[in-house]
Design brief:
heterodimer; A: 470 residues; alpha+beta; PmbA/TldD fold; 2 domains; seven-stranded mixed sheet; six-stranded mixed sheet; 9 helices; 21% helix; B: 461 residues; ten-stranded mixed sheet; six-stranded antiparallel sheet; globular
């Protein structure tokens, strides 16, 4: 437990004394260690003691948020006085309601065999230098390596009796790599983030080497492009980003009801009916689950103290369940499903994804391929984007192979473009493999100021029929 | 800044000097920033961030560097942190990316920055919710049915002290409004932006931005599906800042070394027409990145990036200046990588395009296949070097026919190379404004710009 837990409780209670109907304190206390390397050369190291408290207060249906990094009683009192005043002054037409009280008391932590506090700085730097060497050996000309080890404790305490303590351990590795190719430079952002102790880095060198060799292979490809209509088989990395962008984001309750309107946008789900509207084929079931150990989106209680659980966003092609926090759980009449996340002490908790994936189907990869006369096997992607209603999406293939007569050939296809609507995309799927791989660790952005949170996404492989190339 | 934080920064430097470090440099920052977020015609939440921070760079044994950041409780804690950071630096691998910092103490003419501080900022916190409600009403009165947005404002005080010599302080205030207006349908919307330094003088500008959003949303009703093909695109300042603004920001040695720049080895090349001039100006009056000195204590300056379309120079701090046989341009910064990683490197201040000669009506006066795009988001690259990219226009967009805005259009992408756009700049408007919002992180002064032959794509199914 952090030495500042009492201060968090003091602030939460002081808000009650000042007239708050509801108050909460979210304390973060810990350390971040980070390094940056460029082409194997060390640029600098950072050690950041990371502490602060974010307070959220509800008064007469008005909501406020205040954060402090100066952890003294004086600063906390000042913050709470401001917070209560701002909430009272809001006096909104539609009063915010968090619904039935939540009073969970629990402790949870990221399973970590090798505590990051016990790992020497030398060991961390050596690991990064070894990783850079394998990238260089794979033919990567330009390499930026960014590493961060986070050991944080979080303490959430609310006026309804919730007390959640959590021990967080996260390893972040970002490799920004560029290879000079035959036709153009090829660039990738390799993300190996995971919620584990130091043991999570054991496979990093092998994973990074494998990824770098693939990038070098793509850079060496000839200019072979396809046009017209083709069938696609798409691997877990691309399935992951599709699940995240075309299903996860539009399922966010705050988007559906317009709260993100000016920034991340709204959602095409607004005009659909839960449990009735079809957005894809029967093969499409998309799940969201924060409780998967080791993943970037791992948590057991959300940032409002609600117990985490699996959410079924799309069930057999029909939209099924939005992601909800307490406020929007009331508005939807469904209650929170534990989707509230805050990226740091200085950010308000809002509705976020955690780990989003396509439910495995009945096929093997061979079975998906064997029926295809001509198509593309897209293993990974490069440029992508989607509109702010999450309806018009684009994915450009990175490592792609031509499929001919039921076989994946060695012929690479250069940068095929899938430019599809969400419904067009999900409706084209006629097969999903049995396997499940979280091949897309990423940082999901939302809100203003931005809140980047680690997420995972994945699935098996899927087959998409009759896609007209963009 | 209160004297306490200033004395704690001095204490940190003094502690490091007593330990005989080669260099210790600290930046104390004190800020109180507020935000009002609103949607569906009402305020959702009021926020405030209160922060006292010291960012500290320590150099030991010639080239072992560490950069830390902490909130200083008291002098004892500051000493504890400095000593911990020195020990941390001693364990670092030598860095070839440190080649010195500014060593001359430059005086700061505070009077030059008076226009960057609003002395009535404290009272403004009480007033701001009413200003936002006025903006919401204005957007509705001009045609919106739903209004959303965020309004960020606040005050910052900074104090720099370096064992190499420089020290100095400065303070500023700022405001930044994004307002987005919608019709009942999801895909008819408009955006207005306003930003600057003096919130108490900005109400008229804020309300005008809301009115613009409301009018755009109304005129975007019944938008038609755009057709793919080649178009000349008239980019609003918001779009130009997000898309074209990438090129001058690429004049950064850090990005070049990391393979993230389109401008490596291009000094002296003509990349845009003669009438395009762009500078990085750390002293731009009213600029949201304007300050008297950079993180090293080097005075800010104006650096010509493009002169008559030719790439003239990169921005530098002392280290990259040495690496590129140039002088520091006063662009030193602690650059964030991810959540915790920081390095000392060059960073852009205010990117300033020259104002053009064309009125908006003159920009519309074309017989070519032309689109007017008011806003965009989600710009992503296949290659930062070749600038192959796409971006998604959102909010109001129109076909231009017979010199006038015609059919509203929707659901399309600009999919091209930004270097191609840059070479194809056809005309620059005379309506330059400062842009900084969710999709434009670096304050960019830019007018409406017309670009020839841009490739537009749409969903195939």
């Amino acid at each position: 437990m952090s030495e500042y837990a009492d201060l968090a409780e003091y602030g939460m209670e002081y808000a009650q004394d000042q007239g708050a109907d509801y108050s909460e304190a979210r304390l973060i206390d810990g350390q971040r260690i980070a390094f940056v390397l460029q082409n194997g050369n060390f640029i600098s190291g950072s050690e950041l003691p990371w502490k602060g408290i974010g307070f959220r207060v509800l008064c007469n249906g008005g909501l406020s948020f205040v954060s402090v990094d100066n952890l003294t009683k004086k600063a906390v009192r000042n913050a709470i006085t401001t917070s209560v005043k701002m909430a009272k002054n809001s006096n909104p037409k539609d009063k915010i309601d968090f619904g039935s009280p939540v009073s969970n008391v629990a402790k949870w932590g990221v399973p970590a065999k090798e505590n990051l506090h016990d790992v020497s700085l030398e060991a961390m730097i050596t690991k990064l230098q070894d990783m850079d060497k394998v990238a260089e050996s794979a033919g990567i000309n330009t390499r930026a390596t960014i590493f961060e080890a986070q050991s944080l404790t979080k303490y959430l305490v609310t006026s309804e009796g919730t007390k959640i303590e959590s021990d967080l351990s996260m390893l972040k590795f970002y490799g920004i790599v560029t290879v000079k190719g035959i036709l153009d430079s090829e660039q990738r952002f390799v993300d190996l983030t995971r919620s584990t102790g130091w043991e999570g880095t054991k496979s990093w060198i092998e994973e990074y080497e494998n990824e770098c060799k693939r990038i070098a292979k793509v850079a060496a490809q000839q200019d072979h492009k396809l046009t017209g209509k083709v069938d696609f088989v798409v691997g877990p990395e691309v399935v992951g980003i599709i699940c995240h962008e075309n299903a996860g984001h539009p399922s966010e309750g705050d988007r559906i009801m317009g709260r993100e309107g000016a920034q991340a946008g709204e959602s095409f789900w607004r005009d659909l009916t839960l449990g009735e509207s079809r957005v894809g084929s029967d093969h499409v079931t998309i799940l969201e689950d924060p409780t998967i150990p080791g993943t970037g989106g791992y948590y057991l209680y959300d940032d409002e103290g609600v117990k985490a659980r699996e959410r079924v966003l799309i069930k057999n092609g029909i939209i099924n369940e939005p992601l909800l926090n307490r406020e929007f759980g009331v508005k939807f009449g469904m209650g929170s499903n534990g989707s509230s996340r805050s990226s740091d002490f200085n950010r308000e908790p809002i509705i976020r994804m955690a780990n989003t994936y396509m439910k495995p189907g009945d096929f093997t990869l061979d079975e998906l391929i064997e029926d295809l006369k001509h198509g593309i096997y897209m293993l990974s992607f490069t440029e992508w984007n989607i509109d702010d209603r999450r309806y018009q999406s684009k994915y450009v293939g990175f490592e792609c192979y031509e499929i001919k007569d039921g076989e994946i050939t060695e012929t690479m296809v250069r940068r095929p473009v899938m430019e599809l609507t969400s419904i067009g995309l999900f409706s084209s799927i006629d097969g999903v493999t049995k396997d499940l791989n979280f091949d897309f660790p990423g940082v999901c952005g939302k809100s203003d100021p931005g809140q980047g949170v680690p997420v995972y996404a994945g699935g098996g492989s899927i087959r998409m029929r009759g896609i007209r190339l963009g | 800044m209160d004297d306490t934080l200033k004395s704690l920064v001095d204490s940190a430097i003094s502690t490091g000097q007593k330990q005989n470090v080669d260099l210790i440099l600290g930046l104390g920052s004190q800020s109180v920033n507020n935000q009002i977020r609103f949607s569906q015609n009402k305020i959702d939440i009021n926020k405030q961030w209160q922060s006292d921070l010291i960012d500290l760079l320590v150099l030991v044994e010639g080239n072992r560097v560490s950069i830390g950041s902490f909130s200083p409780r008291d002098e004892a804690y500051v000493k504890e942190r400095v000593n911990a950071q020195i020990k941390f630096a001693q364990k670092m691998t030598p860095s070839p990316f440190f080649m010195g910092v500014e060593s001359v103490q430059h005086s700061i003419d505070q009077s030059a920055f008076r226009e960057h501080f609003d002395p009535r900022i404290v009272e403004y916190r009480e007033k701001a919710p009413q200003v936002i409600n006025t903006c919401i009403d204005e957007a509705i009165n001009t045609g919106a049915t739903r209004v959303a947005g965020s309004f960020l404002f606040g005050e910052n005080s900074n104090y720099l002290s370096s064992s190499a010599g420089p020290s100095g302080g400065y303070q500023n205030t700022f405001y930044n409004l994004t307002v987005r207006a919608f019709q009942d349908e999801l895909d008819a919307s408009g955006q207005g932006l306003a930003c600057g330094r003096i919130p108490n003088s900005a109400e008229k500008e804020l309300v005008q931005a809301a009115g613009k959003a409301g009018r755009f949303s109304k005129s975007h009703k019944n938008a038609q599906q755009a057709k793919p093909g080649l178009y000349d695109i008239i980019m609003s300042p918001a779009v130009g800042a997000n898309v074209l603004g990438n090129i001058p920001q690429d004049a950064n040695p850090l990005l070049i070394m990391m393979g993230r720049s389109s401008l490596g080895d291009k000094i002296g090349e003509k990349l845009a027409p003669d009438f395009v001039n762009i500078e990085d100006n750390g002293l731009q009056p009213g600029g949201l990145a304007t300050s008297p000195i950079d993180i090293e204590g080097t005075p800010r300056s104006s650096t010509s990036i493009f002169n008559e379309g030719v790439l003239k120079s990169y921005i530098h701090n002392t280290t990259t200046g040495n690496m590129f046989q140039a002088e520091s341009t006063g662009n030193g910064a602690f650059v964030n990588f991810g959540m915790g990683s920081k390095i000392m490197a060059p960073a852009p201040t205010n990117v300033v395009f020259n104002n053009g000669d064309y009125s908006f009506d003159e920009l519309l006066d074309t017989s070519r296949n032309t689109l007017y795009v008011t806003c965009n988001w989600y710009t992503r690259f296949t290659s930062r070097i070749s600038t192959e990219y796409s971006t998604i226009p959102r909010d109001a967009a129109f076909l231009v026919v017979n010199g006038e805005l015609s059919t509203p259009v929707k659901n399309f992408r600009i999919s091209d190379k930004i270097l191609n756009h840059f070479a194809n700049i056809d005309a620059m408007g005379n309506d330059r404004v400062q842009v900084k919002w969710w999709e434009v992180g670096v304050p960019t002064w830019i007018p409406t710009i017309r670009v020839k032959d841009c490739r537009v794509t749409t969903a195939t199914q």
